[in-house]
Olfactory receptor (Tupaia chinensis), 233 residues
Amino acid sequence: MASDFLFGSKSISLMGCGIQSFFFLTLGGAETLLLTSMAYDRYVAICCPLHYHVRMGRRVCVLMVTGSWVLGSINSCAHTTYVLSIPYCQSRAINHFFCDIPAMVTLACMDTRVYEYMVFLSTILFLVLPFFGIVCSYTRVLLAVYRMSSAEGRRKTYSTCTAHLTVVTFYYTPFAYTYLRPRSLRSPTEDKVLAVFYTILTPMLNPIVYSLRNKDVIQALRRVIQKICSVKM
């Protein structure tokens, strides 16, 4: 997609579109489950610290990560296979800046209502339920933090939780809103604006939210900037 923007190309093969959709859905689905795993990790670390090494041992972490990628791949493979198999007899112009499956389905010359129900179910499983799981985890975490006697401990915990919730909000809300709406309520322009949040803004915010809040990373960045400035002078 980035190369198309740079070279001004506005065409893509059907197979290329399918590959782009597959990786988009795989990465998107895996990220929703990984964010949920991160919320559970923080819940166990803060609310059940004595049980942390039992509940979040190496085996559990490997299963969480592997499960997130496997489930994301299976969901993506099912949707991509369907999109590549349906006939397209209308315009081949996708009204989007990438091969988004809802935008592709609107070009099909067959009844896709059953598939739209499957998209709705998939959105519930991969977005709505994980989001409620994250909200429940952080509700328990915030209640536990509120009871802390250490002001420094509360500050650090609030800082960590706020960073994670910021990413979750920017990622889940527009994603869910886009895929939960029926076709009759969709607007191509609105879908493209919402897609900017979970395809561009969230990836841009991730380094800031997760890395630049770390003191060691900030100090390393300052050293790099000082070296660059000293070389220029």
